[in-house]
What does this fold into?
Amino acid sequence: MSENNIKAVIFDLDGVIVFTDKFHYQAWKQMADEIGIYFDEEINNRLRGVGRMESLEIILEKYDGEPLTDECKKILAAKKNDIYRGLLYGMGPEDVTEEVRDTLAELRNRGYKLSIGSSSKNAKLILRQVRLMDAFDTISDGTNISNSKPDPEVFVKAAEYLGMDCHDCLVVEDAWAGIDAAKAGHMLAAGIGDAKDYSETDYPLKRFSDLLNICK
Ligand code: BG6
Ligand code: MG
It folds into this structure.
């Protein structure tokens, strides 16, 4: 293995392995339009890495009607999720690049343990759709956590499921909140996309396969 301590790699899903931003946007937009709240791509960018109910609260910053009950918020989030899942069912293996598939396979080949660490409750559905369930040793997602990123819970759980010490894990993230979560969990953090230039990122990735230069 490499000169660092890394023995396991924990991957965020949305924005790292697959690109579901456009589906989140479409689904939130449809929900927001129905109740007359302004929503645009800039607001959508703020939802990256953030849990579903926390995302709804950000969207509701533009709402100036009577305060909504928790029950009503749950209905709105469920409506968005129904639309979102409908879009996810249209995904397939072609939605994951060869680069991502080959890099995951090579990391395993080199002896690294691999996990998903995603805030999404739809992570397993996405992985099934793109046929990547078998690429990971374990999955930690929105169904096994109570605190959303930047809380480290989802990554700490992933390390626990893998039987690894947090200090031996590298997290791969596209969201600043995810990098903060990795650091709070005492893990190393590789940043791709938006997270590449974040000051807290230990390893900026120009492309996904750059991981093979870190995990040798
Ligand atoms: C994260 C996405 O992976 O999952 C967020 O980056 C999303 O945008 C969050 O809000 C929760 O997803 P879901 O599928 O449980 O609504
Ligand atoms: Mg992400």
Residues 21-88 form a domain with the DNA polymerase; domain 1 fold (CATH 1.10.150.240).
